[in-house]
Amino acid sequence: MIVHRLTVDGKDYFLPDPVDDLRGKILEAVRAGGGYVTIPPLRGGPGVDVLFSPGMPVTWAQIEVDPPAPRQEESRVDIDSFDAL
């Protein structure tokens, strides 16, 4: 799974794919001299509005994340049983 990291003025935002539309909105805000762009959440929620302006440091990164491994149940040993010895 690909997750995108957007770093704006030292703060990281993790984004779901695709990000092409968001990149266009950010570029449009910067070209207009500044403006708010809503950054969508990685998981549910309303997102966050970030003010973008010319000269603001912005960095994009793609991170490949492996899905979590299935959780294995621990085996239990009955301490009152002699079979565990």
TrEMBL record:
Residues 65-85 are annotated as: Disordered. It comes from Leifsonia soli. It comes from the Bacteria. The lineage of its organism: Bacteria, Bacillati, Actinomycetota, Actinomycetes, Micrococcales. This is Uncharacterized protein.
